[in-house]
Amino acid sequence: MLLMKKITARGRKWLLGLAITGAALGSLSFVDEYFEISKNLDIFTGIYKEVHTYYVDDIEPGKLMRTGIDAMLESLDPYTSYYSEAETEDYRFQITGQYGGIGAVISIKGDYVIINEPYEGSPAQKADLRPGDELLEADGKSLKGMRTDEVSKLLKGSPNTPVKVKIRRHGVEMDKELVREQIHVKNVPYYGMINSNTGYIRLSGFTSGAGDEVKNALIELKKNTSLKGVVLDLRGNPGGLLHEAINVVNVFIERDQLVVSTKGKVSDLNREYKTLNSPVDLEIPLVVLANGRSASASEIVSGTIQDLDRGVVLGQRTFGKGLVQSTRPLKYGTQLKITTQKYYTPSGRCIQALDYSNRNEDGSVGSVPDSLKKAFKTRNGRTVYDGGGIEPDIAMEAKDYSNIAISLLRKNLIFDYAVEFRGKHESISPARDFVMSEEDWNGFLEFIKDKDYAYQTETEKELSEMAEKAKKEGYFEALESNYTSMLDALNHDKKADVLKNREEIQKLLEEEIARHFYYQSGRFEIGFTHDNEIRKAVEILNDPAKLKKSLSK
What we know:
It is built from 19 helices and 23 strands. The chain is of the alpha+beta class. The protein has 5 domains: 2-59; 98-184, PDZ domain (Pdz3 Domain, Roll), CATH 2.30.42.10; 190-398, 2-enoyl-CoA Hydratase, Chain A, domain 1 (Alpha-Beta Complex), CATH 3.90.226; 403-455 and 494-540, no CATH class; 458-490, no CATH class. The strands form 6 sheets. Strands 3, 4, 5, 6, 7 and 8 form a 6-stranded antiparallel beta sheet that branches. A 6-stranded mixed beta sheet has the order 10-11-12-15-16-23, sandwiched between helices. Strand 10 (190-193) and strand 11 (198-202) form a beta hairpin. Helix 8 packs parallel to helix 9 and helix 9 runs parallel beside helix 10 (297-307). The longest helix is centred in the C-terminal third of the chain and has 29 residues, at 502-530.
């Protein structure tokens, strides 16, 4: 409406003359576009008013409008989102990684929220809050039945303000008083030496300061004079700020090097982004770990390292998010995060895997077919492709867990046993050396003896579906005896499954127990012995000939 009024005020005659004499300049499409905008805004406003006035039940105006906004934006892509004034603080945390609170990950268990993991050095850790602690009260308010977001709001607050919590641990209630701090969730939660000559940097996000954190980590690792190579772990990193991706690349790449270019509908906003600073190290051998959950900024880093042949990418194909979002401020303290551009790596490829602009008839989104993928060249002349994430230079199969391990994880029995184990042990050996004893393993078998951790195999699922169809079609009675025999034959002994998969389950237990004693550091350090991809990365870094071959044409 506003746009059309402005056009009308400037003169209908001018528009009419322009439409008649300037068709070659595209003015007709200009007028048509704004007419369509005006018309559809009028229709939408009319529907909104009629529904609010005449719908049989009372309508919440804000809720109804939010439903319409969310549905409209969902039709575009999953990354374009509206943030109300109340949600803006959560969005700010996504960008900065900072908030005022106690510093702990929480989750639901039964009627209460529990501590899942306190951040190292946080008020939660200082107060000896542990994984598995049930949060009963906060400042005298019962937390029973509350969702995690509701409890989170009560625990968050201005730094240097106190909060009293009542917890229950192993059936014993106790009071804790914490002083909130400014919590910064680190982009680099861990760095250290895998062995005497191989460094490791875990990068889990791209909020403000990510580049500096990677830079400082590498500087610290380089103080070890025997350092011969570095593993940069981007697995599971969903991305974040574009300029922080450039800063991370800059740690390993020379100044004034093109890292990424962005192109969109508004050509004036198209940009080329180059490194601005002096690197920390241009020569040290580098392996970047990535997987199917490495997205966006993670793909800019891994794609640039690959395009410039600065290091080897190892793991699985990345997610394939080649879209850039910008934040647009709206009225009343609200914001719109909107996809404005696509980004391109130094070789010129866009790795966006899904084409949201051309949906299928059923509304689903298709991947870019292999036949339409284009080839590009790295600095050394190696061939890489667009349209489907970053293909690793050295591919490894993703870890597949057994059905019994998945069941134990989903039913939190691995976590629960670690909670019990922590309650019975004051300390364990350093994480990278920790191995469960036979007594510990037998303790786990005793712990799960009366627990439900059954699962259904794919064959059992198909048999069940077949039985339902047979009942509907009237054939089940004739098949029933055979059906029962097959189920009996497939019926698996749970304890036998646990024993058969002991190695896998014991590793999961050791990783969880190490986390309960040593927080995130424990989780990463025990991975140095358990993680096949880290072991492969170390092998490559210790074999210069193999590394050179991986980067050659």
